[in-house]
Each structure stands twice: as structure tokens, then as C-alpha cells.
Amino acid sequence: MKIAFIIPSLANQGPVIVVKDLINELIKKVDHIDVYYFDENPELKLACTTTRISFREKIKFDDYDIIHTHMLRPDLYIWYHSKSVNRAKCVSTLHQDIFQNLKSSYNFLIAAIFEKIWIESLKSKQAIVTLTHTMRNQYAKKIKVSKLHTIYNGRPFFQFDELKEIDEMDKKEIIKLKKKYKIIGISALLTKRKGIAQIIMALPYLNDFALIVIGNGKEKDNLVKLAANLKISHKILFLGYRLEAIRYFKFFDFYAMSSYSEGFPLSLLEAGNASLPTLCSNIPIFKELFSKNEVSFFELDDVKSLVNSIINLEKNSEMFSQNIYKKVNKLYSVNNMSENYLLLYEKMLK
Fold first, then answer.
1. What is the pLDDT of residue 99?
2. C-alpha span between 104 and 220 (Å, rounded)
3. In this structure, which topology does domain 2-154+333-349 adopt according to CATH?
């Protein structure tokens, strides 16, 4: 079996990380893999040949059995060149709630327009993968149900001693904070959709807790101002973007997923792999992936609920730590993910 993956770039971002993990497993099981991408920002190295292309440039589509696209431009690319694809079977993975993600990044009008365009482009594919059943049910209203398949993301298991040490200056700042407080950690692109302001608003009621935020984004300035207005800047460390943010997880006592919407958060799997007691917003996707004995849920935009949820995490930290680790290692491994994709590819070729 020969597979081509088409992605927007080689940036260190969720969908590309998923492709990297998938390739690392599939390359042992298939004949050949190539990756094509559009933007020149090669942060990640992949275990196969990678080629930069332009949108109008045709690759040799029918040299491949499977063409697997991720994100908008690659989906539009296959749609644009659909008349040149004869033998290869095309599959796309939807990594997010399209409308909510675009609305958060742009506005309602842009989200509404581009969701329609994106979904129209998906109709040229033989299969569309959703990351959860919640997402599948949502798109079943807009895409032919027989084309929809659910495959959970997975991440490689790791040991902290296998990872590189963090920057020494970061380490000093973190240790200084840990001497006074228990640390809640977050690693995310800083957008309103991630709901991090909720955690900051709860901190004044949590005397023993501080927050470390890894990541950049257009919401960062607002979060910094909010912390200053609440007079809790001394309890929050904004580290900015860090490559391999997972290296910092060993300094956290707890992890927070405060999102208003999500596709399938890789950092949540990494927190589970690190045995971190984790706080989650009470949204359908998180409730599908984990039970109330595996993560501590809170109601969106309810500070009291969030505070109580963190107290619950602290009180039952050993239970949450063990249960989330077991769940992630059992269901959300990179091996499970790759096996499920391979089964889908084989089914498409039959």
C-alpha cells in the first residue's frame, strides 16, 4: 500500500503532530509513504520524504493507493484537482468543529461561509474521519453518513527521563513558584475558545494554587490584563511557546482543559500519560472520552463549579491520577490509532 499525506505545513501543531505519530507507526506496515505540504516552516521532521508544493501544482495522484488530507487547504486542494484523481482513494480527517473553530479565530460570517465551502470539498472524498462520535453525530446532518468513520487520536507513551531538559531559566521560575503553590498547568494555543480566562478568574478563590501557561496566541494580552486586574499576576507564569511542551508536565501538580469546544486535544492525552489529575470543562467531547472518575468536570463560566472541581481534584488526586493514566494507555495509544486507520484504508481499497 502506498500512501500520500497532504498537510498545510510541518508546523508543530496538533493535526501535524497526529500525522507524524501516524506515519511513525504506519511506515512499518505499508510499502511507501510521502508527505506533501504548502507552507515553509519546517519545525517537525517526519520519518518519510516530504515535498513542498503549491496549490495549483499537481502531484502524481494515482501513484498512490490512499491520499489522506488534513485541514482546509489540503481538502480544497484535492477538490480542486479531483478530475486528476482516478485510481487513488481519498480520505480526510476532521480535527475540529469547523464552525466553532473558525468563529473563535475570525468571526461568525467567515465561519459560516468557510464551513459550507469546507463541507462541500469533503463530498469528493470516499471517507471522512471524525475524532469522536460526538463530532460524527454533528456532521451526519451535513455529510453522507456512510462516509463517516470515527477514529480516536492516540499519542506515543513516554517517560520523562527520555525527554530533553527544559530551559534553565524556565526551570528556576517554575521551582520558585512551586515552593509557594500547587501548580495547575495548561499547554494550548491562546484563543478564547480555550477558556483559560475561567481558570484565572477562579485563582483568587484558590489560595494554595498557581497557574503555568505554555503557548502563545492573540488572547494572551487579554489574559495578562485579566490577571493584573485581579491582582494575581504573581500566581501566574506565562511561558510563551515552547517546543515539546510535554517536557514541562513533570513540574505540574494538576492539568486543566477549560475549552468551550475541542476536536480531540492531544495535550489531554499527554496529561493522562503523565498521570496528572485533570480538570475538564463539562462539554460533550470530554464527557465522551472520560468519566467523572477519570477527570474532574466543571460547568462552563461557573467560577464556583470550577473552584469545587479543583478542590475535588486535590482531595482525590491519587484516584484521578491512576484512572486517567489507565484510560489513556488502554484506549488512546498511537498503536490503536494507526491500526484503526490501516483497517479503514484496507476497507476503502476493497
1. 82
2. 14
3. Rossmann fold (3.40.50)
